[in-house]
């Protein structure tokens, strides 16, 4: 096998953007441009298994409290989804 060379990760200047703004820009770049999201769509965006979210409501956006229903399905507003996406797994505490 060949020798592994070291690799230095280059620093990326954020310019005038602060860290939260960079995170927000990243989220908005892949979040679909719509106002209401079903639980299934929210899970797809966060890469969370839908069945797991159904069984553990604490993992859902807003700890499972829907912002409204559309067609009988639990739905969440865009702002709720953005706030939920910014939480890490450690920050989301499932309600037992």
What can you tell me about this protein's structure?
By secondary structure, this protein is of the alpha+beta class. It contains four helices and three strands. Strands 1-3-2 form a three-stranded antiparallel sheet. The protein is globular and about 60 Å long.
Please summarize what this structure is.
The protein has 96 residues and is α+β, with helices and mostly antiparallel strands. The chain is built from 4 helices and 3 strands, in the order H-E-H-H-E-E-H.
Labels describing this entry:
alpha+beta; three-stranded antiparallel beta sheet; 96 residues; globular; 11% strand
What's the helix and strand layout?
Blueprint: H1 19-30, E1 36-38, H2 39-46, H3 50-55, E2 68-70, E3 73-77, H4 78-85
Antiparallel strand pairs: 1-3, 2-3
Strand element count:
3
SSE class? alpha+beta
Q: Outline, from the CA principal axes?
A: globular
% residues in beta strands: 5-15%
């Amino acid at each position: 096998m060949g020798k592994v060379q070291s690799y230095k990760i280059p620093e990326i200047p954020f310019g005038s953007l602060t860290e939260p703004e960079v995170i927000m820009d990243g989220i908005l770049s892949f979040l679909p441009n719509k106002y209401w999201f079903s639980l299934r769509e929210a899970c797809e965006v966060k890469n969370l298994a839908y069945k797991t979210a159904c069984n553990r409501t604490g993992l859902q956006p807003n700890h499972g409290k829907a912002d409204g229903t559309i067609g009988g399905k639990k739905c969440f507003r865009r702002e709720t989804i953005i706030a939920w996406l910014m939480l890490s797994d450690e920050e989301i505490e499932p309600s037992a």
